[in-house]
UniProtKB/TrEMBL annotation:
<feature type="transmembrane region" description="Helical">
    <location>
        <begin position="365"/>
        <end position="386"/>
    </location>
</feature>
<comment type="pathway">
    <text>Phospholipid metabolism; phosphatidylcholine biosynthesis; phosphatidylcholine from phosphocholine: step 2/2.</text>
</comment>
<protein>
    <recommendedName>
        <fullName>diacylglycerol cholinephosphotransferase</fullName>
        <ecNumber>2.7.8.2</ecNumber>
    </recommendedName>
</protein>
<keyword id="KW-0808">Transferase</keyword>
<dbReference type="InterPro" id="IPR048254">
    <property type="entry name" value="CDP_ALCOHOL_P_TRANSF_CS"/>
</dbReference>
<dbReference type="InterPro" id="IPR014472">
    <property type="entry name" value="CHOPT"/>
</dbReference>
<dbReference type="GO" id="GO:0004142">
    <property type="term" value="F:diacylglycerol cholinephosphotransferase activity"/>
</dbReference>
<feature type="transmembrane region" description="Helical">
    <location>
        <begin position="173"/>
        <end position="199"/>
    </location>
</feature>
<dbReference type="GO" id="GO:0016020">
    <property type="term" value="C:membrane"/>
</dbReference>
<feature type="transmembrane region" description="Helical">
    <location>
        <begin position="80"/>
        <end position="99"/>
    </location>
</feature>
<keyword id="KW-0812">Transmembrane</keyword>
<comment type="similarity">
    <text>Belongs to the CDP-alcohol phosphatidyltransferase class-I family.</text>
</comment>
<keyword id="KW-0472">Membrane</keyword>
<feature type="transmembrane region" description="Helical">
    <location>
        <begin position="332"/>
        <end position="353"/>
    </location>
</feature>
<feature type="transmembrane region" description="Helical">
    <location>
        <begin position="50"/>
        <end position="68"/>
    </location>
</feature>
<dbReference type="GO" id="GO:0012505">
    <property type="term" value="C:endomembrane system"/>
</dbReference>
<dbReference type="InterPro" id="IPR043130">
    <property type="entry name" value="CDP-OH_PTrfase_TM_dom"/>
</dbReference>
Length: 423
């Protein structure tokens, strides 16, 4: 059972990556560094190996966070991790950004640029998104709160918008301020500041007017002295709103140029609204004591399961883009999460106790089972798609093709025949 229809496999040969980056920081500072950095990597290192290495660094950071704060109690003066942990998160994320930026350059150096790299790159980005939300929320002293949920929803929304836009325009567009460039560097700064201050994440509870020493300035001191972490969340909300209109403007321009309807693409935003709504419905179930998911150690595994389901969703979107296939409206994982959400909300819906999540132990079993099913579903998707693409195109995922005596790139596997089978 595969994910790519036989007729869509042929479109893999037609795919060519197109990207636009308008960031001055990227153009004048980061890109020169990335151009130098890629030269440090031997030509026998596959681009996907670089991408995976970056994700592994983030996974190490995430494991370190769970080691020092296993129950995720950072909110309002909870666990303060050693300073070096925050510094390592900053270094790990910066290296992830660098690895993510040079994998395409390495692909061009080794003649391995193609749809597989696009799929692998975006797949790692999708998983990194949720991991960074959890770690950054800990560093911001948000912890188990609806601010963290809002941060997860906003960050995933930005990723979905970018993928949705790329599907309709045929290119990855990064504006003068984008998540993969400036957004990541902002999070690196958050980690660094949390490591520098003795109070750790509690520093971010400082009021913005207090921090800027504006509490005695007339007129300005009439404004609310909002904590720095809450102010950062408000800034993020404006960022999402800006990205929505910017993405649609680019999609509308592309659709007009192609003579296609401009309103229809907006309907393809509904899958994200539905999936995020289901997760929020599960979290908002009418238990407000310490056993509620958002108030318990189940919060982190719940967010991880949500992130894996999202990675599966956008992975299918990217696959549709590189194979010129119809946009995926439906994801079967919605049914699983919807069952969990409905069961948890039965007291509010029909006035009876949940069928499965009747106590804290059962709720933990359901959440961890959801995490396991989400992981298996996404791992299965990645494995099957990689196998299908490599078998059809006659390439390998983590092996670099070699040059023959005439300087031409040789396939690492036998090339495919007209029916997609290896000759």
């Amino acid at each position: 059972m595969g994910f790519i229809p036989a007729d869509a496999l042929q479109n893999l040969h037609k795919y060519a990556y197109k990207g636009v980056d308008k960031s001055p920081l990227s153009k004048y500072v980061l890109n020169p560094f990335w151009t130098w950095f890629v030269t440090l990597w031997p030509l026998w290192v596959a681009p996907n190996t670089i991408t995976l290495s970056g994700l592994c660094l983030v996974l190490v950071n995430f494991a370190t966070l769970l080691w020092y704060d296993p129950t995720y109690l950072a909110e309002k003066g909870g666990v303060v991790m050693p300073s070096w942990v925050y510094f390592s998160c900053a270094i790990g994320l910066f290296l992830y950004q660098s690895f993510d930026a040079i994998d395409g350059k390495q692909a061009r150096r080794t003649g391995m640029a193609g749809p597989l790299g696009e799929m692998f790159d975006h797949g790692c980005d999708a998983m990194n998104t949720t991991l960074e939300v959890i770690m950054a929320s800990q560093a911001l002293n948000l912890g188990r709160s609806w601010w963290t949920v809002a941060s997860q929803m906003a960050t995933l929304a930005n990723f979905y918008l970018t993928t949705w836009e790329e599907y309709h325009t045929g290119e990855l567009y990064l504006g003068v301020f984008s998540g993969p460039v400036e957004g990541i560097l902002m999070i690196v700064s958050i980690y660094t500041i949390s490591g520098l201050y003795a109070a750790g994440p509690s520093f971010w509870d400082t009021g913005i007017l207090t921090f800027l020493r504006l509490t005695n300035v007339p007129v300005i001191n009439q404004l609310p002295d909002m904590p720095l972490n809450d102010s950062f969340m408000v800034f993020g909300a404006f960022g999402v709103a800006f990205n929505v209109q910017a993405s649609y403007r680019n999609v509308r321009r592309a659709r007009l140029a192609a003579g296609k309807p401009t309103v229809q693409p907006l309907m393809l935003l509904l899958p994200f609204v539905v999936s995020a709504g289901i997760q929020a419905l599960w979290l908002v179930h009418p238990r407000y004591d310490d056993s509620a998911i958002i108030n318990s150690p189940l919060f982190v595994p719940f967010l991880c399961a949500w992130g894996l389901q999202f990675a599966h969703q956008v992975g299918r979107m990217i696959l549709a883009h590189v194979t010129s296939s119809p946009f995926p409206w439906w994801d079967w994982m919605w049914v699983w999460s919807l069952c969990g959400a409905v069961d948890a909300n039965l007291p509010m819906l029909v006035g009876r106790a949940p069928i499965v999540q009747t106590n804290e132990t059962n709720r933990a079993v359901v959440v961890y089972l959801t995490l396991a099913v989400s992981f298996v579903a996404y791992a299965r998707f990645c494995t099957l798609v990689i196998n299908e693409i490599t078998n059809f195109m006659g390439i390998a995922c983590f092996t670099v093709r070699k040059k023959d005596k005439d300087g031409k790139w040789q396939e690492s596997l036998p090339s495919s025949g007209p029916n997609g089978k290896k000759e």
